[in-house]
Amino acid sequence: MEQPPEKVIETITAIEEMAEDVLADRRQMIELDRKRQKMREAASFNFSFSRSLRKDKTKQKKWVCFGNMFVKLSKQQTVCLVDKEFDSLDEEICNIRTGIRAKVNKLRDSESKEEIRGFHLQALTKDELESLEAVL
């Protein structure tokens, strides 16, 4: 059964918009992961930096760069801010990942393709992994 050209163009346009939305989310997730890796580097440096600070008995604040701004903070404040930022990036990446799954399913439905097998798999949590290791 042949469809009118307007309907075909409308369908293809909708599919392309959904695909572009998935790609945009994927790019955003990659960018957030880069930021998360930078935060991990900062946390690692801060840990090694804190070991050298233990020898230093002065309570001086150190300069820290946040975005385009330098701020003078104590070691404890710096560690707290890095941890909060790391957690917020993890949460945002997880939310985007969940949204991508739904968008990909909707895209595949509109393309009349089957659902991807194993696409909804999730990693085991730490507690689940420990209980599994206890059983094995």
UniProtKB/TrEMBL annotation:
<keyword id="KW-0143">Chaperone</keyword>
<keyword id="KW-0963">Cytoplasm</keyword>
<dbReference type="InterPro" id="IPR030482">
    <property type="entry name" value="PDRG1"/>
</dbReference>
<protein>
    <recommendedName>
        <fullName>P53 and DNA damage-regulated protein 1</fullName>
    </recommendedName>
</protein>
<dbReference type="GO" id="GO:0005737">
    <property type="term" value="C:cytoplasm"/>
</dbReference>
